[in-house]
Amino acid sequence: MIALIAGPNVVRFTPSLVIPEADVREGLARFARAVARICS
């Protein structure tokens, strides 16, 4: 999964077309944890 900066307040994710849904969920969970650590 690739995260792209799409504007000052936007992060766009571009997962592979053949990525399992579980991997997408895991990637988003990791991103959420990283953001929480930065914002705390």
TrEMBL record:
EC number: 2.6.1.11
GO molecular-function term, one example from the UniProt record: N2-acetyl-L-ornithine:2-oxoglutarate 5-aminotransferase activity
UniProt xrefs under SUPFAM superfamilies: PLP-dependent transferases
Alphabetical UniProt keywords: Aminotransferase, Transferase
Source taxon at top rank: Bacteria
InterPro entries membership: PyrdxlP-dep_Trfase (IPR015424), PyrdxlP-dep_Trfase_small (IPR015422)
UniProt-recorded name of the protein: Acetylornithine/succinyldiaminopimelate aminotransferase
Origin species: Serratia rubidaea (Serratia marinorubra)
